[in-house]
Amino acid sequence: MTETERTPAAATGEKQPFDLGTGPGRVLVWFYGVFTVAAASRSIVQMILDFGRAPLAYVLSAVAALVYGFITYSLVRGGEKARRTALVCCAAELLGVLVVGTWTMAEPSAFADATVWSDFGMGYLFIPVILPITGMMWLRRARTA
């Protein structure tokens, strides 16, 4: 083993890759993981038991679960490409929360049942609207680290 192989990247002046799942990123991974399971479980059960009652709401909850799962995976995977992908997904998630939240407030009759993003995530203590903002802040910080 040569001296450069034993020397950490920081000591040689190389920029170390930023681990997205450390520090505050670990909390984001936990929240996104929990929301992945919650949204997926909810939508699967609702689609199996009573899909005809509120198909739009149940499909939107399934889409939320997919977005949450992809962000979770990206945060755990790490790296610049995963960071950029997670940033785009967080922006899409925020857009979804804002659109669905506004839609459910303006036209409540359009939804026979609530989605994860209904009323800006009020049923989930507004975490669905806070999470993408927090995620984007962390991912932008990770870029400069």
Automatic annotation (TrEMBL):
Keyword terms, alphabetized: Membrane, Transmembrane, Transmembrane helix
Spans through the membrane: 27-49, 55-76, 85-106, 121-139
Source superkingdom: Bacteria
Name of the protein in its database record: Integral membrane protein
Species name: Streptomyces atratus
Lineage of producing organism: Bacteria, Bacillati, Actinomycetota, Actinomycetes, Kitasatosporales
